[in-house]
Design a protein that fits this description.
Arc Repressor Mutant, subunit A, globular, alpha+beta, about 90 residues, two-stranded antiparallel ribbon
Length: about 90
């Protein structure tokens, strides 16, 4: 199955994105990019919540449970799929 999300290249934050096939499948099931949603930023699939919001909130000290309560459209599996390869978002 091919992903409808381009996971190659450089992320919004300038990080180079490199994933193996399993991580790419889990990650692409959790996120999407559409130029008509939040100006094409990576968002959690089925929502308008930018993936960057997760990292910003965690960086500011929020817990995953707090993030999930603030963004009820995002589910725990999506968060962990993104966090399983957080190296995708590090420079």
């Amino acid at each position: 199955m091919e992903s409808d999300v381009d996971l190659r290249g450089v992320c919004d934050n300038g990080a180079v994105l490199v994933m193996d096939n399993t991580a790419q499948k889990n990650f692409s099931a959790a996120i999407e990019r559409n130029p008509d949603i939040v100006s094409g930023a990576l968002v959690f699939r089925g929502t308008r919540v930018p993936v960057a919001a997760l990292f910003e909130n965690l960086k500011d000290g929020a817990s995953i449970d707090e993030f999930l309560s603030w963004f009820p459209g995002v589910d725990r599996q999506q968060v962990f799929a993104v966090l399983d390869d957080d190296s995708a978002f590090s420079a």
